[in-house]
Write a structure and sequence with these properties.
CATH topology of the largest domain: FAD/NAD(P)-binding domain
Distance between the termini: 56 Å
Number of domains: 4
Structural class: alpha+beta
CATH superfamily of the largest domain: FAD/NAD(P)-binding domain
Radius of gyration: 26 Å
Strand content: 15-25%
Mean pLDDT: 93
Helix content: 25-40%
CATH class of the largest domain: Alpha Beta
Number of strands: 21
Amino acid sequence: MFLDYDIVVVGGGHAGCEAAAAAANLGSRVLLLSMQIDRMAYMSCNPAMGGVAKGQIVREIDAMGGYSGIITDQAALQFRMLNRSKGPAMWSPRAQCDMWQFSSAWRQTLESVGNLDIRQDTVTSLLFENNKVVGVRTLCGAEIHACSVILTAGTFLNGKIHIGEKSCPGGRLGESASTGLSEQLSAMGFDVQSLKTGTPVRLDARTIDFSVLTEQRGDENPSKFSFSDTLPVRDQLSCYLVYTNLEVHDILRTGFDRSPMFTGRIKGRGPRYCPSIEDKIERFADKDRHQLFLEPCGRYSHEYYLNGFSSSLPEEIQVAALHKIKGFEHAKIYRPGYAIEYDYFNPTQLQASLESKLVENLYLAGQVNGTTGYEEAAGQGFMAGINAHLKLVGKDSFVLQRSQAYIGVLIDDLITKGVDEPYRMFTSRAEYRILLRQDNADERLTPLSHQLGLASGNRMRRLEKKKRQEASVKYYLENHKLEPSQANARLESLGTAPLSQKADLASLLQRPQVRLQDLREMDPGLERCVSAYASEPYYAEMLEEVEIALKYDSYIRKEEENAARLSRYDNLALKQDFDYKSILSLSYEAREKLSRLKPATLGQASRIPGVSPSDISVLLVWLNK
């Protein structure tokens, strides 16, 4: 059978779903191929979206017209804004989700997208002509031609599941692996390596004593992910804090001689920041206990996820150790924890558009690039879908800079530094994080996406209306002053110095002790100005953004200046055939790495490990010549 499309997306995980939807919404004829179409964007591991820095990525995808934020809001069981005790650059939204509703909502959404077809099949090989990908061949015998292929196979490429001394091929427990693609691309010169990840046991809530666990509720006034008109979660479910103990650790150690990690059967490196429980008790042997989080998987299911108890130990060891945890003495499991080893492609082989440098029109996104996490995968898929379409219609790639988005930081890190362990996004990776807050993702990115034709006109009108209202509130704060008699009693009660003369409200708001709500109580005029917008669905978020913008104004301006100064490097293009080896004034390491990685801009070159500031100065001289 022969089929013909503009773009074929291989894999129906978080990357594949966002890639297919973005390309189709832009106007390409897209086919999404998945081994299991009833498990679209399936939450193979933790049933949650967002978290530290990851929540910013989801809001960025939403601001540009992607679906991860909308579907998270639809499937949410609990919402929390993490790091509220820190500065707003660190605030990160997180939602516990109904994993089945999440997947079902994704499928319903994809089926409603025009230009998009879905097919259940397994891709066995890619089709090439003259070093260009021109389609795929499937297990069912279909030959599908396309102008571009986006590969988002997740952990399925030569995936191998490990539970104690048992192992079997698989991309997820109960699902087969994908074979042949790694070998085919390796033969074409791709650097193919392996990584390892893992997942914990799933427990039956009916066998857990919740009365002895520490309850962790959602926010009292929950927010949401999407900037659209989705609703905040109602009737939130709780998570619970749980702790291991020395007896648990001792039992786990009895299985180390059968652990595939410690016996060397697993070769791939696991995630540093999400280690297995056996790895934790080995690396942190001085600790008497480790914190775990018990999290619901669905509103109408008894299945719970034990976050922090990832393991590849034999099942009987996992169960015996669980029974020594307080509250789990009689716990039964739905499925054991396991490790999975899988292939990935060194992401330094990609351009900033996520197109391969080795094969034209082949894009890679998600865990095949060495990342971990639904959010990182979705962000890459979204960008790959956009860029595959743009190339098809003869337009320049859409590349987000590090000063514009966490997604820009993510992709730049991958293509300039590569990975030797599963990459996870953190706020510390972003040098401009006060600019890249979760609250202002729409202001940063919706106009850019609207210019592409992806973010809708409704989104732009909503954003423009919100910005006008923000400007109105800011104007009042900056142009209205309070007398000492109006403010001092309240200021002293807040623990801050009283006024000796009139002061504008914006300057008072910059005091750490003073909040916008305090000023509203001091000045009836401000209260009237603010309350005029109380009926807007984004009212609370709008006021929070105003407060952050004014309270941290000097920090924001400083970062904007730094970003503008350094962005000139990212605007200096380097030719792909630049002969670095002929420039003897470059260090030997710089010549070797620049020749191999072929950065697109001087900015990218400056971020390659081993390329020093003096090397960049040498390149600047050559560019000026």
